């Protein structure tokens, strides 16, 4: 079979139609075969746990690049829909919260532990975090453990909207842990200044304001469904921000460092009281 049209693109791969019902995730050259096998395994684990994720089929090679065949989700990426139909923005943010809450109703014992992955990422960012690294790691270990399936990177580019559902794709970062940590990561992505560098200052200002409102609508709906306070999400922001530093997302570094610094200061002030 030959690959069909390009239906999506991310930081690790392009995704092409593969016949009518399937999609080929074609990784960029140099992407490790082990990471692809692991992604396939995680995809199977989350489906077995009852999550509505795309089915995973076989690994393959196409034009010298490694690929993985998935069930094709017949829909549009939520990010594109949000850009095309700004009127439905807040409904989409609430639906994201509902999807996230559904994901968190599933559990498994076969995925990596959230805190282990976070700690590893925080330690990888040590060059920037310096002496704060150890403090943030011990703070992380005092937070709740959790046993739920967490997506690890739920944002509008990793959600497809079909005729009757919202479906999360890109499960390679899934872990077992505290759902509120997963929510904190989504929130951080909403608030990130990334992708705002190539537009005018006024447009960037408006875009960030909209993202703040979307974040508020998303968190409010999630906290309502999970019956938890916002503060319980907020306690995760420090380790989640510290872990994100090593991803080196363009335009984020200064913002993350400032946010981490502020959180460290208020922690120290609270201790001194
Ligand atoms: N099973 C699927 N069916 C239909 N479209 C898909 C499917 N999987 C992925 N896509 C589309 O392809 C895009 C890229 O896929 P994916 O997010 O898995 O790539 P990635 O490189 O891992 O992304 P990231 O940059 O988040 O790491 C998605 O945003 C989505 O629009
Ligand atoms: Mg993606």
TrEMBL record:
InterPro entries according to UniProt: AGP_Transferase, Aminoglycoside_PTrfase, Kinase-like_dom_sf, Prot_kinase_dom
A GO MF term: ATP binding
Any single Pfam family the record assigns to this protein: APH
Highest taxon in the source lineage: Bacteria
Ranges in coiled-coil conformation: none
Spans traversing the lipid bilayer: none
Gene3D superfamilies (alphabetical): 3.90.1200.10
Occurrences of domain Protein kinase (ranges): 1-273
Name of the molecule in the record: Aminoglycoside phosphotransferase
């Amino acid at each position: 079979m030959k690959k069909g049209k390009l239906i999506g693109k991310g930081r690790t791969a392009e995704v092409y139609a593969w016949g009518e019902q399937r999609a080929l995730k074609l990784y960029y050259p140099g992407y490790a075969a082990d990471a692809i096998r692991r992604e396939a395994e995680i995809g199977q684990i989350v489906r077995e746990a009852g999550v509505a994720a795309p089915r995973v089929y076989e690994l393959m090679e196409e034009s010298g690049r490694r690929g993985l065949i998935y069930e094709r989700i017949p829909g549009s990426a939520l990010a594109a829909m949000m850009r095309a139909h700004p009127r439905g923005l807040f409904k989409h943010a609430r639906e994201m919260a509902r999807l996230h809450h559904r994901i968190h109703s599933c559990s498994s014992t076969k995925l990596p532990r959230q805190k282990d992955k976070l700690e590893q990422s925080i330690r990888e960012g040590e060059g920037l975090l310096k002496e704060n690294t150890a403090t943030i790691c011990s703070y992380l270990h005092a937070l709740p453990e959790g046993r739920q399936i967490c997506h690890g990177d739920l944002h509008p580019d990793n959600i497809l909207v079909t005729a009757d559902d919202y479906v999360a794709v890109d499960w390679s970062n899934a872990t077992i842990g505290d759902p509120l940590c997963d929510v904190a990561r989504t929130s951080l992505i909403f608030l990130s200044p990334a992708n705002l560098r190539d537009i005018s200052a006024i447009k960037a200002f408006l875009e960030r304001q909209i993202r703040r409102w979307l974040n508020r609508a998303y968190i409010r709906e999630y906290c309502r469904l999970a019956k938890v306070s916002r503060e319980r999400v907020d306690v995760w922001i420090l380790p989640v921000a510290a872990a994100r530093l090593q991803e080196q997302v363009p335009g984020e570094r200064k913002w993350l460092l400032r946010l981490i610094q502020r959180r460290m200061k208020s922690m120290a002030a609270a201790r001194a009281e």
